[in-house]
Amino acid sequence: MIGIASNTTILILTGAGISKESGLDTFRDRDGIWSRVSLEDVATPEGFRRDPERVHAFYNARRRSLISDGIAPNPAHAALARLERDWPGRIVVVTQNIDDLHERAGSRALIHMHGELLKIRCRHCNRPREWRADLDCAHVCPDCRRAGSLRPHVVWFGEMPLEMGRISEALSECGLFVSIGTSGHVYPAAGFVAEVRSHGRAHTLELNLERSEGAGLFHESRTGPASELVPAFVDELLHRQDA
Ligand code: APR
User: Fold this and answer.
1) Cα 181 to averaged position of ligand 1 atoms, centre (Å)
2) 20 Cα to the center of ligand 1, angstroms
3) Which of 57, 118, 123, 153 would you call most buried, defined as having the most Cβ atoms within 10 angstroms of its Cβ?
């Protein structure tokens, strides 16, 4: 049982594992995306400079899959939306995922630190815009009219994650930090638990299919599928508040 007051700020970090049971691949599991594609080729500014059409093809395929009929939020996404609705304190979900499954489930207090697959931006005028179609080098920016300047609105390795100011503020304010479905390999997200603990106030909990490499940094680690662990954790929090 988690012992926190009902006005506690809860910060939730999510990774690819929360969307696995919705039909989207993780990155570093045996059947993960990086077992089939080299991240240097498709997820770095250098890879995009070398072969932009290849990078576009990679994100086009992922975008098509995300908006296909079979992909929908699972009970873990729904439980986090329910927590945001029913918890009296502040909830912030920081996701490393570029899918839109948290939004589709109803989460609103959401930060996409690695960008969004259903947005693109122009490298010259820098404005993100909604985008659901395929993208290629022939596309012209609707604002500045340059061709070949549009790119996926995602953060590649070597680039600065988005909204770090708001994230730092939530890391220092929270009384409960929960990490869900992330292997803890990619910084800065992998360092959030240590940062939270350096403030000395929050309980820290990992919910993951298996103990991650950094599991020892958390006060508590629970293992199992997100679709079971997350609804159970949300029930536990909301019922202890009723009590
Ligand atoms: N429920 C809970 N956890 C799961 C499930 C599940 N059903 N399935 C897999 N997992 C766990 C795996 O055990 C693993 O620890 O989810 C984690 C996924 O780890 P990664 O594939 O490394 O994904 P993530 O941590 O989100 O990657 C971080 O790396 O390449 C980048 O930009 C990409 O945002 C991504 C970042």
Assistant:
1) 5
2) 8
3) 153
Nearest CA to 208 among 46, 26, 61? Answer: 26
Using CA atoms, how far apart are residues 96 and 242, in angstroms rounded to an integer? 32
- Structure tokens, 147: 């061709």
Which tokens belong to 90? 């502040």
56 is catalytic: no
- Identify any residues that bridge with 205 across adjacent strands, giving them in sequence order: 178, 220
CA distance 227 to 136: 36
- Could you say which DSSP state residue 94 is in? E
Contact 170, 11 (CB under 8 A): yes
209 in contact with ligand 1, CB cutoff 6 A: yes
The Å distance, Cα 194 to ligand 1 centre, comes to 19
Q: What is the pTM of this model?
A: 0.97
Ligand 1 atom 23: residue of nearest CA: 16
* Cβ within 8 Å of residue 166, ≥6 positions away: 111
**77 within 8 A of 234, measured Cβ to Cβ:** no
- Cα separation, 23 vs 65, in Å, equals 9
**What pLDDT, in 10s, does the model give residues 151-167?**
999 999 999 999 999 99
Q: Which of 77, 114, 153, 203 is catalytic?
A: 114
- Taking the C-alpha atoms of residue 98 and residue 104, their distance in angstroms, rounded to an integer, is 13
Q: Which of 33, 155, 180, 183 to mutate to test the pocket of ligand 1 (most atoms within 8 A of CB)?
A: 183
For residue 201, give Cα distances in angstroms to 4, 38, 97, 189, 217: 11, 40, 27, 19, 14
